[in-house]
Specification:
heterotrimer, A mainly alpha (459), B alpha/beta (296), C mainly alpha (439), A: 459 residues, mainly alpha, 2 domains, two-stranded antiparallel ribbon, 77% helix, B: 296 residues, alpha/beta, 6-stranded mixed β-sheet, 14 strands, 25% strand
């Protein structure tokens, strides 16, 4: 229905373009030279007048309509339903929507609901019909305006280019809005959370058990929201990952850039980078179904008790995932060290490994540190591997054979499944998200800064 | 000037192969019968390095063509010639720096004293310790001044303790004429020095391993005149202890610092001789053209 | 041999013979060199071994899923059961007890089966989908009613697993999902040639299901398709426009610096945070439906934007300034210069970047979990608003299920996902090779 309207609008705009073009040629008396701009600009001018205002109205209307209809329908409900508490009312509205779309509803609908559903449908029909009328009128009016405005002296090119400029500028601000959106959404919900749970408890508490009870009188209904075990778990798993990824990634990069023949490099480098392209869910599957049981068996053979969701398995696989990240970043950094450094060292009679260890690595150190920081931030924010292979219970331990949980795992468990939106449980997820965002942002800013300074040094 | 160059070289190579003892004199006397042959008497007393029939290829490109040259001990010899003539390439053959370039191939014979430096038995590590090199652009390591100079002795295990190393570093800096300027700032990074100081630091770094020969690849091209003058003065002092081969773009510099000069042109060694003679009375037309500034 | 004469006051070490000194350490140093080289080689081999291991592991687990076990059962399309009043009324036909036909067929195969428990075990050999299959056939050709046919019916997941050799027959009966008598029947069927493996079309034609043998990835594939379509339609134009603006039009000031820093940082924000944004803004604030590809696409396009912008800018900077000067020199406006000359030349690079970004978006699952694309959805989505899931999330959902048949299917789904990713990356490489220009 709405996509048809969009299609109609596009067709109208194309029509507007041809009309505008023809009109321009006509007013110029067939001599394009008389026109200020090329005829196609007049066409675009008309098309923009046709499509743009209509599209804006369409977008605003389509966003607002559902909310307005709901409000109207709720206002028309019998008072006993209308005065329900907000969360019950929400459920009711949900039922209503299901009723309208013809899905099965949990309980047999009562007449009031059925009436409301009818009303809802009616309003929808009315709304859509008026939307059609308004949008089409606007589009046609736009073309008409453009038709009248087109004259040889109209600076159509400048006008059209102005609109394109605006579009470009608007596009470039999307990135800013994304950041603002992220910050606002996590900060806003976190503030709600910190109203219910003191921020000090969240930051320094050693207990994490977000199970809120179904009934208020149940035991442990309050839950505990101390995030320290989560961050400890995250650090443990990321630490294991870095122990795997840094030596392997760094040595691979060194080998590829200093020792490997160009042929070997041409094959091995992209092959290694395949690891970076594999979706994390695949790593998670690999960790949970292959690596974790393997580690358990090896542990059992050595007489060790290994949890089936050990931090070691998740960390190990996460390390594998990060290898290409470390290696390609280090590769860039190592290649940025000027050849003259190597020459200087070789000319003194140093062997390759001496040159690497004593000149190259110290010279590249800031850059390597930067890339490792980026890798750490990647590990901390990684979700699927830990969701699938790490545990759910928040243990405060440094033993890699035990199960720990991480920030991202908790965000996922808290937010999947049906939850009311303003319980501390769901809000806690946003508070964790805020922490995650802040930590990774700081790491990234430091890392990018270090890497950039390092580059400048050799440019 | 009686035989052709090729005959002379062949005869000499045979003689060299038989005799591996250090020679007191080595000589190639060549004549000019076309543009492709070296002229000049390249006899030296007490030869340090002897090159015969050296060819260098970069992939398909023939960069150095059959060059024969003797370099005497404790002399400063300058390589001059227009850019791209192969003088730097030839210089880099002398301590096998061309090994680091995969497509580069070297044939012929280069001897350091009695050792054929391209022989399998020669370790490039050892060779480079004996033949040091200073580059066009100062390239101090991103380490402290002290560590820059200490680098060579450390990797070669030349010193037994810290005190010995201290002495060696100070002595090298002194020889490079840098000690007064850096005495109080040994811990500062090498890159904090000025360009000329950096270049002298690189010279100090090279002489810290006590090489026999020092190769200098346009060591002053990135420096201002005052710094250049200091380096030239230093080269003159170093001649006492080392054989110095310097590639330079500036004829004046060659005239100032070297005893002998070799002129390269498009991969050929055109003329070798005493610096005075080359600059006042070149035997070859190409050399003359270059000297008089007809091209370059 | 010429010994350097020591300068005044130079210490002794300078006079020692460099040749002997270096020689003394050579052996040790070359050994260290070899070791170091070995460490490098080991590291890169380990890395490459992981690649091979993962692929081998997944392909090894997943390839059997492309075949599915079928049992040949004699089916009597009994008119009395299907259409007692003979009117061929679709309503009656739809509600008929097709399962009874399957059960009768099974009893016909093994008349000796007696008792409630044994019969249930017997009926358990074929999938519950068999009844639906019969229904579909009857609806297609109503003439079947009254006829008898030997039909290949979908075997249950347990039989499938057994036939593929993934159930240890030596285990105690109570410890395996399939009973002794069932194994015996399967053996008999195999001996009679009434069991065979066919290409698993169900995997590609069905949506999700609780029964492994009926579960397919079509729903997830369509969900991924709609999601990626939204992602591409949003992120490519916006990303390209941003790249063009920053590279060609933007003045160098604090604002554009801010945008640049912002883009670089967004590229490194954990994907799950984008999921939180989607949940808070698109679903809770704008009230868009949960689980919809539209929302998924919105979230993923915000995630992909930095990738496209960065690639786009790289493509634009690689167009030499001389082309811009030439266009401006001919009197083109700045926009014409970009539109006619710079953009067409940069387009392959931009597309390459976008395809790589799309491939990454295709593999992304964490943010989609946040916006509810993780529900159990049987129906194949038909629009941008239908609740749906995507391929990686489907993998995540299946990986949680304990049945061996689901492990197999998860691996198969991973293989399909990887195939798409390889396809997309291959396309990007091809595009780059084909249109790469060196200036």
């Amino acid at each position: 229905m709405q996509s048809f309207l969009l299609l109609a609008l596009i067709l109208l705009s194309i029509g507007g373009y041809t009309l505008g073009r023809k009109r321009a040629v006509a007013v110029a008396g067939g001599h394009i030279r008389n026109l200020h701009s090329l005829p196609s600009f007049y066409g675009s001018y008309a098309a923009l007048w046709c499509g743009l205002p209509a599209l804006i109205v369409f977008a605003v209307w389509a966003t607002l309509q559902p909310g307005i209809i709901i409000d109207l329908v709720v206002a028309g409900l019998p008072p006993e339903l209308r005065d329900l508490p907000p969360d019950r009312l929400n459920l009711l509205v949900n039922d209503l929507k299901n009723l309208v779309s013809g899905n099965i509803v949990s309980s047999t609908p009562d007449p009031a609901m059925l009436a409301a559903a009818d009303r809802y449908r009616n309003l929808q029909v009315i709304g859509n019909a008026s939307l059609w009328v308004v949008v089409m009128t606007l589009a046609i009016a736009g073309v008409a305006y453009a038709w009248r405005a087109i004259s040889p002296t109209l600076r159509a090119r400048n006008r059209v280019e102005r609109v394109v400029d605006l579009f470009l500028i608007a596009s470039s601000t999307v990135a800013i809005f994304t950041t603002v959106g992220i910050v606002l959404s996590v900060v806003f919900e976190s503030i709600l959370f910190f109203r219910q749970v003191p921020i000090t408890e969240f930051l320094f508490g050693l207990q994490w058990s977000p199970q809120t009870a179904l009934r208020a009188d149940q035991v442990g209904s309050s839950g505990a929201f101390g995030s320290v075990p989560l961050f400890a778990g995250t650090l443990l798993i990321s630490g294991i990952a870095m122990v795997v990824a840094v030596p392997i990634g760094l040595m691979s990069a060194l080998f590829l850039s200093e020792y490997a023949t160009p042929k070997f490099r041409a094959v091995a480098k992209p092959a290694l980078e395949i690891l970076a392209g594999i979706p994390t869910v695949v790593y998670g599957f690999f960790a949970a179904l292959t690596v974790a049981p393997l580690i358990r068996e090896i542990g059992a053979a050595m007489g060790l008790h290994v949890a089936s969701e050990s931090a070691l398995a998740a960390g190990l696989v996460m390390g594998i995932m990060i290898i290409p990240f470390v290696s390609s970043l280090s590769d860039d950094v190592i290649n940025a060290v000027p050849q003259s450094m190597r020459d200087g060292s070789y000319a003194l009679g140093a062997t390759k490994s001496e040159t690497i260890q004593r000149v190259l690595l110290p010279a590249a150190l800031p850059g390597i540190v930067g890339s490792i920081l980026l890798a750490v931030s990647r590990a901390i924010g990684e979700t699927m591997i830990v969701v699938m292979a790490a545990g759910l219970s928040a243990n405060l331990t440094a033993n890699p054979l035990e199960a720990v949980t991480t920030v991202t795992v908790q965000i996922v468990t808290l937010l999947t499944g049906d939850q009311e939106f303003d319980s501390p449980k769901t809000l806690a997820a946003f508070a964790l998200g805020l922490m995650l965002f802040v930590v990774t942002l700081i790491l990234n800013i430091i890392a990018l800064h270090v890497v950039r300074k390092y580059r400048e040094q050799y440019e | 000037m009686s035989t052709t160059a090729i005959e002379t070289k062949v005869a000499l190579d045979q003689a060299l192969n038989l005799d591996t003892a250090p020679r007191k004199q080595s000589s190639v006397e060549v004549t000019d019968y076309n543009n492709r042959q070296t002229v000049g008497n390249i006899t030296v007393d007490n030869p340090k390095m002897v090159c015969r029939g050296v060819n260098v290829y970069y992939g398909e490109k023939h960069a150095i063509k059959n060059v024969g040259l003797d370099i005497g001990a404790n002399e400063v010899i300058a390589f001059i010639g227009p850019s791209g003539c192969g003088k730097s390439t030839f210089l880099r053959c002398l301590n096998r720096m061309n090994d680091t370039i995969p497509i580069c191939r070297v044939t012929g014979q280069i001897r350091l004293d009695s050792d054929d430096i391209y022989d399998k038995s020669i370790d490039v590590v050892q060779l480079r310790a004996r033949v040091g090199m200073v580059f066009q652009k100062p390239n101090p390591f991103p380490k402290s001044i002290y560590e820059n100079v200490a680098y060579g002795p450390r990797i070669h295990g030349m010193v037994n303790d810290k005190a010995e190393l201290d002495d060696l570093v100070r002595a090298s800096l002194e020889r490079a004429g840098l000690i007064k300027e850096v005495d109080k700032r040994m811990g500062e990074p090498g890159t904090s020095l000025s360009g000329g100081q950096q270049q002298r630091l690189c010279i100090a770094r090279a002489i810290a391993v006590n090489p026999e020969v020092i190769l200098m690849d346009e060591p002053c091209s990135a420096l201002d005149p005052i710094a250049t003058a200091k380096i030239e003065e230093l080269i003159d002092e170093l001649r006492e202890n080392y054989t110095i081969i310097i590639v330079t773009h500036s004829m004046q510099q060659a005239a100032r610092v070297s005893q002998r000069t070799a002129y390269f042109h498009l991969g050929d060694l055109i003329e070798v001789g005493d610096t005075d003679q080359i600059f006042t009375n070149p035997k070859h037309k190409l050399t003359e053209d270059y000297i008089t500034g007809r091209f370059g | 041999m010429n010994k350097p004469t020591p300068a005044a006051g130079a210490p002794a070490p300078l006079n020692r013979d460099i040749k002997t000194i270096v020689n003394a350490g050579l052996k040790r140093r070359h050994a260290a060199e070899r070791h170091f080289r070995w460490y490098g080689l080991i590291a890169i081999s380990l890395g490459l071994a992981f690649v091979v291991l993962m692929f081998a592991n997944i392909i090894g687990k997943g390839y059997p899923a492309f075949w599915q076990t079928y049992i040949q059962v004699p089916i009597q399309f009994d008119a009395a059961v299907l259409d007692p009043d003979g009117k061929r009324d679709p309503q009656t036909l739809a509600n008929a007890d097709y399962a009874a036909l399957v059960r009768a067929g099974m009893r016909q195969l093994f008349p000796n089966a007696q008792g409630r428990l044994e019969l249930r075990a017997l009926y358990g050999l074929v999938s519950s989908d068999a009844a639906h299959e019969l229904h579909r056939r009857v609806l297609q050709t109503p003439a079947l009613i009254g006829a008898e046919q030997e039909l290949w019916l979908l075997a249950s997941a347990n039989v499938d697993t057994l036939v593929k050799g993934n159930i240890d027959r030596a285990l105690d009966e109570s410890e395996r999902p399939i009973k002794d008598n069932q194994i015996e029947w399967v053996n008999k069927l195999q001996a009679a040639g009434k069991i065979e493996k066919q290409f698993n079309a169900i995997l590609f034609s069905n949506g999700d299901s609780r029964e492994p043998e009926q579960a397919g990835i079509r729903g997830a594939l369509m969900g991924s398709f709609y999601t990626l379509l939204v992602t591409f339609l949003l992120s490519f134009p916006i990303g390209a426009a941003t790249a063009v603006y920053l590279e060609e039009f933007a003045p160098k000031n604090r604002w554009t610096d801010l945008i640049e820093v912002n883009i670089n940082n967004l590229a490194a924000v954990p994907s799950i945070v984008f999921g939180l944004l989607g949940l808070a803004v698109f679903i809770n604030f704008f009230g868009l439906p949960r689980s919809a590809p539209l929302v998924g696409g919105l979230v993923l396009s915000l995630m992909t934007l930095p990738v496209i912008i960065i690639a786009g800018r790289a493509a634009l900077t690689s167009v030499p300034p001389s082309i811009r000067e030439a266009a401006l020199g001919m009197g083109a406006s700045k926009l014409q210069m970009v539109g006619h000359h710079v953009l067409p030349l940069a387009m392959p690079g931009m597309l390459t970047g976008s395809i790589i970004g799309m491939a990454r978006a295709l593999g992304e699952s964490a943010p989609l979990l946040m916006i509810g694309m993780v529900a159990f959805i049987v129906d194949v989505p038909k629009s941008f608003m239908d609740p749906s899931t995507v391929l990686p999330v489907q993998i995540y959902l299946w990986s949680d299920l304990p049945e061996r048949a689901f492990v197999e299917r998860t691996s198969a789904a991973i293989m399909v996902l990887l195939a798409f990713m390889i396809l997309m990356n291959g396309l990007a490489i091809l595009l780059r090779k084909r249109f790469e220009r060196r200036w």
